[in-house]
Amino acid sequence: MRIAIAGLLVSLAGLAHAADCGPDKLGTARTITLKREAALYGATQHAPLPLQKNEIVLTFDDGPQPETTPLVLKALADQCARATFFMVGTNLEKSPELARRVVAEGHSAGVHSQTHQHLSTMSAQEQLADLRQVQAAYRTVFGKDTPAYRFPYLEETPTMLAALKDAGITVMSIDLGINDWLPEDTTEILVERLVKSLDTTGGGILLMHDVNVPTAKALPSLLKLLKQRGYSVVHLEWN
């Protein structure tokens, strides 16, 4: 009951905040609802999502992290933008209430392995065990099966691709990123990288990391840049 009430309070707070979503905000232009199936998306490795020109999908990897994910959520809420979070199983287990808060605030969640190791260095049995563990962690936290998976380091393996296909789980790669995993990065550096990526790709699935302190600090500026450049946010959900 306590969790349900907490989720309701977060949802009501989100509805109140939605009243402030005027034309000066980045906003969320539309939602694509994907089937729960073994699809593969992300032009870096697979087919692109059905996006229009200057549309962008915000995605975050590696969380939830109590020190940084709340800052990311605040920046997204301030701009009325929704994102997809690919969560690591061990962090799901450590911070289940924060993970549920992410979804309660209107974002979607997939998984990003249990331990974020290089899967290619693991045996087939170890890879499958890692998948089972993160599936169980997701099910425990959210009460349903994960709809989507992003490979650690985007390093796909035949063993995992086959297992995800059998499970009907979407593989979500990327179209662009900002290489935001260095602790010495600054907001100016990350903004510059985003500009270069947008100039190269014109939009698509954007990879960021909600566990990275510089990213959490820079996100308000990154979202404002997207607004200034005329980009529209597309949110992903699964039926």
UniProtKB/TrEMBL annotation:
Residues 54-234 form the NodB homology domain. Residues 1-18 form the signal peptide. Pfam families: Polysacc_deac_1 (PF01522). One of its GO terms (molecular function) is metal ion binding. Keywords: Hydrolase, Metal-binding, Signal. One of its GO terms (cellular component) is membrane. GO terms for biological process: carbohydrate metabolic process. Transmembrane segments: none annotated. This is Polysaccharide deacetylase family protein. It comes from Duganella vulcania.
